[in-house]
Amino acid sequence: MKEGLQNTRPQPQVIIPSAAYSGAIISFVLCPSELLKCRMQIQGTDSLVPKSSRYSSPLDCALKTMKTEGVTGIFRGGLTTLLRESFGNAVFFSVYEYVRYYMHLQLKAASSDHNDLIDVGIGIVTGGLGGVAFWSAVLPLDVAKTIIQTASDKSSTKNPFRILNSIYRRAGLRGCYTGLGPTIARAFPANAAAIVTWELAIKLLGIKRE
User: Fold this and answer.
1) Contacts for 150-155 with beta carbons within 8 Å, 24 or more apart?
2) Repeats (Solcar): which ranges (predicted)?
3) Residue 50 lies in a domain
4) How confident is the prediction for the chain on average, in pLDDT?
């Protein structure tokens, strides 16, 4: 069993570029949807957004954004989203593949009983840790993205590094990681569930990974 697993040792030269590339592609879908989500989330009180400027629905938000900022306005923050997803996915899948490899190496070599239960446990740990690693690595970029997408002054900078530099000077590293607690609390169970489902689907389809 150990010999078979050694043959499937994770290959970072494959994992990192493929995960980064997939993240870049995903960003083109995520950027518009997250822009709408962020803009609708900040209009919860009159002190943030006057009633005359509020959106009645995601579609209304999209239409008003394109009317005032053009079609490219819907992709505001696109570069930052691309950086977040590319780097974040490279981190996620690196952690996922390495943790999965070493857990299989130890647990499945030690026991052949309850393999399904072991697979679920490995999925929970690998997915959860991958999600935590993802957001721990890229949360500052997400903070900058949110600021870019919700800025009232549409001519304000879209450079995430300038924004993060400004935040760091004003509030230190803590400011760059605003919302870390709730994000991590969400990331572990959400990604654990996703990976468990992924692993079970692979097994049901009869796809061999080792």
Assistant:
1) 150/38, 150/39, 150/42, 154/68, 154/69, 154/73, 154/76
2) 10-102, 118-204
3) yes
4) 89
State which amino acid sits at residue 5.
L
Is pLDDT above 60 for 120? Answer: yes
DSSP per-residue letters across 136-155: HHHHHHHHHHHHHHH-SSTT
**Residue 209 domain flag:** no
Whether 27 contacts 81, CB under 8 Å: yes
Report which DSSP code applies to 107: I
This prediction has a pTM of 0.87
- CATH code at 105? 1.50.40.10
Domain extent, residue 94, equals 8-204
Residue 112, judged by CB atoms within 10 A of its CB (0-12, 13-18, 19+), counts as exposed
On whether the CB atoms of residues 195 and 96 are closer than 8 A, the answer is yes
1 domain-assigned: no
By three-state DSSP, how is residue 210 classified? coil
For the chain, what is the domain count? 1
